[in-house]
Write a structure and sequence with these properties.
Layout (H helix, E strand, L loop, with lengths): L2 H22 L5 H6 L6 H28 L3 H25 L7 H6 L2 H33 L8 H16 L4 H29 L4 H10 L18 H17 L2 H7 L5 H36 L16 H8 L3 H34 L8 H24 L5 H12 L1 H12 L9 H22 L8 H15 L4
Length: about 475
């Protein structure tokens, strides 16, 4: 697949998104940007959130991770269902009742202004890390297969990546994103389906034969019950982590909840979350299925997958290398559009939610006024994302999806602890000490993770998120008002 074809596809795709953004920007005031005028249809939100939940990380990393983790990720996906049920039945009714723009306003009404700012700050930290990792992923692929051909440096690739998002989100914000994410989810799912079809065609196998080949392969093991202490893929660890990750990275995350809160009623919003959670199960299974097929195809065709200097497989480059180097040109085009759609469907809403959170929680911007200040906040976060992406370029690991969940354990833990304490108790705390508790919790969690394998023989997985939340919860109890 030539760089010229990739470039033409990229230009056509973003021209389409910019046209859509102009048609859907509405009045372009803060109410439109922050809440979408609370006029979104629940099914459009549900469908668009599939792409935002999966993102380019799932599109790239999950298929590549099958080599080392088999289908163990499905254990986490099943846990998601529990987390989404809690969101639909507990959090959404509460947030609608309080008529929130940002969900961290709840912490302010429950504990005080320091808690409010702390929740917002931890979200901003969490989302900047997560969005930067996701954008790094797509920028890396574009650099490898397109911009390096034209001797474009990586920093300029990142600048272009961020600029494209900014152009189609800076006016309509969440109102535009609800529509563009729906379209991008469609592109992503079509790309997934066609990729499976093209590999089946290359192997001269129908879908039934592909299923049989995957079932008989070494990659299809899904449930792990071997050793709870040392196996990071153990079912209990993965299932529990999935529930907590869904609860925090969707229910306590302004990025994801901002879309939910654009629905007309709490009933519509809850229906949206339940629908999305049920669709995510077969979609994630198909991504794992695709991953197994990639390695089966690679083995049959004698493909040497990319490795690092230590000879270790670079999981995030498995799918791109097959799609762009070994399948027909049209398959590569469809892959590229799917990757861009998946990455941008999460990155655009991240930029909008970061702008919303800072504008509302720290600058107290009015719903309809102060659009100029919001404009500069939008630019500021765009620049910040660029710098963080450059940092991750220096810290690249073999599979970004696992990095995101690992970092989530540290940054989302205090959020989970704060909301849990607020919802499960009626205790008031000394608000000015809440930031100290929230900051100390990740450090204590890291220390526990570091010493646990040596002292207790236990290796933490993503359930570290729960440990972090419990430490925050206990710390809030220590600073309770007498």
């Amino acid at each position: 697949m030539t760089p010229q074809i990739i470039l033409i596809s990229l230009i056509a795709y973003f021209a389409f998104l910019i046209i859509v953004s102009q048609l859907t920007k509405g009045s372009a005031d803060n109410d439109t940007f922050f809440t979408g005028n609370k006029n979104s249809h629940w099914f459009l939100v549900a469908f668009g959130m599939i792409g935002a939940s999966l993102s380019g990380v799932t599109f790239i990393s999950i298929p590549g991770s099958v080599a080392s983790n088999s289908f163990s990720y499905m254990q986490m996906v099943l846990g998601y269902l529990v987390g989404y049920f809690i969101i639909a039945t507990v959090l959404i009714p509460l947030f609608y009742k309080l008529n929130l723009i940002t969900i961290y306003t709840y912490l302010g009404s429950r504990f005080g202004i320091f808690s409010h700012k702390t929740g917002s700050a931890f979200f901003i930290l969490s989302r900047v890390v997560g969005a930067s990792l996701r954008l790094y992923l797509v920028a890396n692929v574009l650099q490898m297969f397109l911009f390096s051909h034209y001797n474009v440096p990586f920093f300029l690739t990142v600048f272009i990546t961020i600029l494209l998002i900014w152009v189609y989100t800076f006016q309509g914000g969440i109102k535009t994103i609800v529509i563009t994410d729906t379209l991008q989810t469609l592109f992503m799912l079509l790309s997934l389906g066609f990729s499976i079809y093209f590999i089946g065609d290359a192997l001269d196998m129908n879908f039934s034969a592909l299923v049989s080949a995957v079932k008989e392969s070494e990659y299809s093991k899904t449930f792990f019950f071997d050793n709870l202490s040392t196996d990071k893929n153990h079912f209990i660890k993965q299932f529990l982590s999935g529930a907590l990750i869904a609860l925090t990275m969707t229910g306590l995350d302004q990025d994801m909840m901002q879309k939910n809160l654009t629905c007309r009623t709490p009933k519509d919003s809850s229906k949206n979350v339940i629908t999305m959670s049920l669709i995510l199960v077969p979609v994630n299974l198909l991504f794992l299925f695709l991953g197994a097929l990639l390695f089966i195809y690679g083995s049959k065709m004698g493909i040497q997958f990319p490795t690092n200097a230590d000879g270790k497989l670079i999981a995030d480059q498995v799918f791109p290398s097959v799609a762009l180097n070994h399948l027909p040109v049209y398959a590569g085009v469809i892959f590229l559009l799917g990757l861009i759609a998946a990455a941008y469907s999460s990155a655009d809403s991240a930029l909008a939610s970061l702008t919303t959170t800072f504008s509302v929680d720290f600058l107290n911007l009015d719903k309809t006024k102060d659009t100029k200040k919001r404009f500069w906040v939008h630019i500021g976060f765009s620049i910040l994302l660029m710098f963080v992406i450059f940092l991750f370029k220096q810290l690249n690991n073999d599979s970004i999806v696992w990095d995101i969940f690992k970092y989530a354990g540290y940054t989302y833990g205090p959020l989970l602890g704060l909301f849990a304490f607020g919802l499960l108790t009626k205790i008031q705390v000394k608000d000015k000490f809440v930031p100290l508790v929230a900051i100390a919790s990740p450090f204590i969690t890291y220390a526990i993770q570091y010493v646990s394998p040596k002292w207790f023989g236990y290796t933490f997985g993503f359930e570290l998120l729960l440990v972090n939340a419990l430490i925050t919860f206990f710390g809030l109890w220590l600073i309770k008002k007498e």
